[in-house]
Design a protein that fits this description.
Bound molecules: ligand BES, manganese (II) ion, zinc ion
Shape: elongated
Largest sheet: 8 strands, mixed
CATH architecture of the largest domain: 3-Layer(aba) Sandwich
Radius of gyration: 24 Å
Helix content: 25-40%
Strand order of the largest sheet: 7-8-10-9-13-17-14-15
Distance between the termini: 41 Å
Structural class: alpha/beta
CATH class of the largest domain: Alpha Beta
CATH topology of the largest domain: Aminopeptidase
Length: about 500
């Protein structure tokens, strides 16, 4: 049963639900606001429990009450929101935590009191959908959970207007789009191979009325995307490329291109990876999953800008046809590349996508990829690193990621490291030495964008999570999509 969201003007305690969740800011008095209403309904147990649990409204504090029939809500959870003022992204995280708690405690229905923040309706809808997310495609028998959060009522003090309902509906669609990215990341690599990833992109286009061009292996060869073909040549599953296009009604204010790395599995190829943890490389298509999700979200948001989504899909496998260290390939851009380490396959796939995107003459091109372990070493597993060839773009990105509540850090394109990419035998080597590994990957990509205003986001850390946090679930997260949406909105407004 899919999750059904609604919005209404009513009080949490007088709304029928398995669980009612209400946020309380730090320092709220027990004899004021909602806590006062709760005490009036349940009696002295409220003050007693709040004191016992040292509940002061600090972020993530939780006080839990069974109401035993005293209110229409069967259970009330008071959640600390921390010190204000709250932003829409705080509301999104609050809603996600509430939905995760409800889902985890087998509630079928939840009512959620919206904090009084501009944009709370859309953010809460996004958060609920993201927090309730689980991936159950391969669970059978007892492993299938019996309960499912299927009804959520968002409660507001304001009179509900059409704009609020529309905001909930857009938020729900954005949340579902991000869950699609998560599903694609979580799918096992025997099921989700390059052609299937391309199919998923084509389906999003079909369902949302977007233009779509799919290139299979022959198409890639004809087009001259030699680097994608090289990376995919060791796999029995041929590489694919997809170009998705959203065009607004009327004149577009800007043209933006988003690119994603779509390695449905990365063994490392001939430079094979060690076995421990290799299964995580099913998520090496997180960048492509984000771009697919972004196109679905854009179709719901309908911004006044043209948005192109490009994904390069391949599987990096070692076999008799696999590409080798020492091989030299041409590229769509024309530059020749000497292969050094076949495990640095992502930048090769991206290079051809960027050359393709550059030809669209965009006002901005952004690529995102689970590109380097070095970026995870630099920033840890929850922060992605971004690079830009314009200061103005880096500033925009900083604001976008902050507004979206996604942790991203601006990294430098260190010119001194460029000489590490010089080859004796071709125009470029595709890897340099170990030091600054995330930076040299970015410098390699820069060779393929020309003068195009460009941002590169290395999402190797946060694209997958080993435990739930913020709006993210364990496994694929879709980290990045909310930031790219903010970026699109910023281009729409200037
Ligand atoms: N897909 C990996 C990067 C990665 C590592 C993503 C850990 C998520 C978690 C990428 O293709 C890769 O193997 N990069 C190499 C590059 C090196 C050979 C220059 C790396 O980071 O070790
Ligand atoms: Mn690799
Ligand atoms: Zn990879």
């Amino acid at each position: 049963m899919p999750l059904k969201l609604s919005i209404s003007t009513s009080e949490p305690l007088s709304t029928v639900a398995d669980i009612a969740v209400v946020g309380v800011t730090e320092g709220a008095k027990p004899d004021d606001g909602f806590l006062k209403d709760l005490a009036a309904a349940l009696g002295p147990v409220v003050a007693h429990n709040l004191k016992r649990d040292e509940f002061t409204g600090k972020k993530d504090q939780v006080a839990d009450f069974q109401t035993n029939g005293a209110t229409k809500a069967a259970r009330v959870v008071v959640m600390g929101l921390g010190k204000g003022p709250l932003t829409a992204s705080d509301v999104r995280v609050f809603a996600a935590k509430a939905a995760r708690l409800a889902q985890g405690s087998k509630a079928g229905s939840m009512s959620l009191a919206l904090p009084n923040v501009p944009g709370a309706e859309r953010a809460a809808a996004e958060g609920v959908v993201l927090g309730a997310y689980r991936f159950l495609n391969y669970m059978t028998g007892d492993r299938v959970p019996k309960a499912e959060l299927s009804k959520v009522q968002l409660l507001t003090h304001e009179k509900v207007q059409k704009a609020h309902k529309d905001a909930v509906s857009v938020g729900e669609k954005i949340g579902n789009a991000i869950c699609l990215a998560r599903n694609l990341i979580n799918e096992p690599p025997n099921e989700l191979y390059p052609e299937k990833l391309a199919d998923a992109a084509a389906k999003v286009c079909k369902d949302n009325g977007l233009e779509c061009i799919v290139l299979d292996r022959e198409g890639l060869e004809k087009k001259g995307m030699k680097l994608i073909v090289a990376v995919g040549q060791g796999s029995a599953r041929p590489p694919h490329f997809v170009h998705m296009t959203y065009k607004p009604k009327g004149t577009a204010k800007k043209r933006l291109v988003f690119v994603g790395k779509g390695l449905t599995f990365d063994t490392g190829g001939i430079c094979i990876k060690p076995a421990p943890g290799m299964e995580e490389m099913k998520g090496d298509m997180g960048g492509a999953a984000n771009v697919i999700a972004l196109m679905a979200a854009v179709a719901a948001l309908k911004p006044q800008v043209e948005v192109h989504g490009l994904i390069g899909c391949a599987e990096n496998m070692p076999d008799g046809w696999a590409y080798r260290p020492g091989d030299i390939f041409g590229s769509l851009d024309g530059k020749t590349v000497e292969i050094i380490n076949t495990d640095a396959e992502g930048r090769l796939v991206l290079a051809d996508c960027l050359a393709y995107g550059r030809a669209l003459k965009p006002d901005m091109m952004l690529d995102n990829a689970t590109l380097t372990g070095a970026c995870v070493v630099a920033l840890g597993p929850t922060v992605s690193g971004y690079y830009a060839n314009r200061d103005e773009l880096a500033d925009r990105m900083k604001t976008a990621s902050k507004d979206a509540g996604e942790a991203m850090w601006h990294m430098p394109l260190v010119e001194d490291l460029r000489e590490g990419l010089k080859s004796d035998w071709a125009d470029l080597k595709h890897t340099a030495d170990r030091w600054g590994g995330s930076i040299t990957a970015a410098l390699f990509l820069r060779e393929f964008v020309g003068d195009t205003p460009w941002i590169h986001v290395d999402i190797a850390g946060p694209s997958m999570a080993n435990k739930p946090y913020n709006v993210y679930a364990k496994g694929g997260t879709g980290h990045g999509v909310l930031t790219y949406l903010k970026l699109i909105e910023s281009f729409e407004n200037s």
